[in-house]
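Deliverable D2.4 — example input (structure tokens):
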């Protein structure tokens, strides 16, 4: 028979006879099944969240634009890709969680992120010009406000001010092409020997 409910039996011997006393466990089994279903749903949500985060990280890193995500309330850098970290002259892991405005010269900083975003909307960006405190580059920061889970963020794009000569741009582009497409394996490492950047030829060699 295909019984649809569990029973727990206690057995008592009475001479040659055995008495089975059963207890219906359907209510307990129902609660247990509900817990299992909840756990499975949580695992599925966690897997979906992890998959989304992986895709988000990949998009951030492969983007050719320097991108940062800044919490407007705290002023801290929530996320940053390697291109933006390179423009600021610091390591991306070190920059995450740090104060965004402190990465620029004090004379160039707005009073606050909210002030810098005045007049900007989800469709328009507000921009300001500043010098990187470490990299000493003149940068244009374009900030677009976004909202997620009740928290306000600023999605920031950065680019170098168009003050270089055409010759410098040509040289920079040529060196980048040599690095990206050259057959020689090229690696940039810090004084401790930690790789900061490498090209595809080096990856192929490895």
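Example output (designed residues):
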């Amino acid at each position: 028979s295909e019984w649809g409910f569990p029973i727990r039996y206690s057995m008592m011997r009475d001479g040659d006879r055995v008495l089975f006393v059963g207890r219906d466990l359907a209510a307990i089994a129902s609660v247990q099944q509900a817990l299992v279903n909840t756990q499975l749903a949580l695992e599925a949500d966690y897997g979906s969240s992890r998959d989304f985060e992986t895709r988000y990280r990949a998009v951030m890193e492969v983007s050719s634009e320097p991108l940062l995500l800044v919490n407007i309330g705290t002023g801290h850098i929530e996320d940053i890709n390697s291109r933006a970290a390179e423009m600021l002259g610091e390591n991306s892991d070190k920059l995450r969680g740090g104060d965004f405005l402190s990465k620029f010269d004090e004379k160039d900083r707005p009073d606050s992120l909210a002030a810098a975003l005045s007049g900007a909307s989800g469709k328009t960006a507000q921009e300001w010009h500043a010098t990187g405190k470490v990299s000493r580059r003149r940068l244009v920061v374009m900030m677009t406000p976004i909202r997620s889970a009740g928290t306000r963020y600023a999605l920031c794009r950065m680019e170098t001010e168009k003050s270089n000569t055409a010759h410098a741009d040509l040289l920079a582009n040529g060196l980048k092409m040599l690095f990206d497409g050259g057959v020689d394996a090229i690696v940039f490492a810090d004084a401790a020997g930690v790789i900061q950047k490498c090209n595809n030829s080096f990856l192929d060699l490895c």
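The mean pLDDT is 85.
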